[in-house]
Amino acid sequence: MKKKLALLLAATMSIAAIAGCGGGAQQTPAPAAEEAAEEEAEAPAEAEAEEEAPAENIHLDSLKLQFVPSRPAEEIITQTSGLPDLLKAELANHGYDVDEITIDVSSSFEAAGEALSAGSIDLAWLPSGTYIVYSDETEVILTATRAGLSNDSENPADWNGIENKTERSGPQVSYYKGLIYAGPSPKGQELAAKVNAGEALTWEDISSANWCVGKSVTSNAGYSFPTKWLMDNYDGKKLTDLPNMTQDDYAGSFMKAAAEQVDVIVCYADGRTDYEEDWNTPSTETTSKGAGYGREKEIWEELNVIGVTDNIYNDTIAITKANPEVYNEDFINAFCDSMLAICETPEGKDIIAIYTHEGYLRATDADYDAMRDALAAVQE
User: Fold this and answer.
1) CA pair distance 360, 358, nearest whole angstrom
2) Topology of domain 58-146+314-379, per CATH?
3) Which of 311, 313, 306, 374 is nearest to 155 (CA)?
4) DSSP label at residue 282
5) What is the average per-residue pLDDT within 188-194?
6) Residue 319's beta-bridge partner residues?
7) What is the DSSP code string of 112-166?
């Protein structure tokens, strides 16, 4: 602009000088000045045209989302059924038109990791341990936040009794603890009595009990962190060293404990809160999870904590690296902004509550380095 103004000024001064010397003869402006004037006249029109051109949204045929079976599959599908419509609307606001968004539940944690790695799904809600295993082919973009619990003690006895009932009343936190629970069977009550009396459990105590642990070895509270708890407390012993161990999902584990088929189960720290209703529902009646467990006493009396794991970093939302349509900065930002907006709505809060998530924070792979160390110790 400064150059153009200088050319115009020079041309004007030249014309004035010629007119003064030539006795008033009309002169033609210099070509450079004429060209500059035309460009100045055209520039605003071009800028205005650019501003008026609407930006077109990017079109995607489909977006495939998957949840892991931390809860019964039918319960997850029912509670998250509204997510596709909410996500479509938000993504459109952020520059993406998606024809179809589908949701399903994997058969296991590992199956979700495999599908995400292969690109047969686009995004998955993965526990942090599962994410770490598959992080070469996937990338974390969000981490869940939950209300902290009323109890965060490392002493198992502090979790026991109705007076210590676990409430979700703390501030938002990005971690949780896993707990090892002794059930109402005679052996389970024997273990609980020792812990509540302040006595340490021996390997003989632990190994003589019937255990039920998670199906998936990458489940944090269901497998890997209980394994690390054993290693830390019993000279490197692992779940696989237990002579009496079966595997099931959380619902199956609580049901077996209530039926006194097993003595010890493992779960996340607020597991008793999630299964409190089922525990006292008659077996002839049903809850959202299936048939009631038929216990008379409250779960807080009968299911005692005998071990507390290290802190476990919260669940992730991870994206595949195999699909360039979604694995790019623009889409990742659009998806993150969309999910954060959805979580602020009553409908969105209800959807993510299926995993007791209350919100999300942006995450990076480096956030999970400490979890990698824990998983590596388990796999040694």
Assistant:
1) 7
2) D-Maltodextrin-Binding Protein; domain 2 (3.40.190)
3) 306
4) -
5) 98
6) 123, 139
7) HHHHHHHTSSSEEEE-HHHHHHTTTTEEEEEEEEEEPPS---S-GGGG-SGGG--
Dist CA 228 CA 249 (whole Å): 19
Asked whether the beta carbons of 314 and 59 are under 8 A apart, the reply is no
What are 322-366's pLDDT values in tens digits? 999 999 999 999 999 999 999 999 999 999 999 989 999 899 998
Round to whole Å and give the CA distance between 110 and 216: 7
CATH superfamily of 156-313: Periplasmic binding protein-like II (3.40.190.10)
What is the four-CA torsion angle of 90, 94, 99, 101, rounded to 10 degrees? -50
Cβ neighbors of 292 (< 8 A, separation 6 or more) are: 278, 280, 281, 282, 283, 284, 285, 286
* Beta carbons of 122 and 277 less than 8 angstroms apart: no
**What is the location of CATH 3.40.190.10 in the chain?**
58-146+314-379, 156-313
Give whole-number Cα distances, 113 to 62, 121, 178, in Å. 19, 10, 22
What's 290-319 look like in SS3?
A: EECCCCCCCHHHHCEEEEEEEEEECCEEEE
The two structure tokens encoding residue 332: 């990742």
Structure tokens at 211: 């255990």
If pLDDT is split at 50, 70 and 90, which confidence band does 43 have? low
Residues 232, 180: contact at Cβ < 8 Å? no
Indicate the residue type of 48: E
pTM of the predicted protein model: 0.64
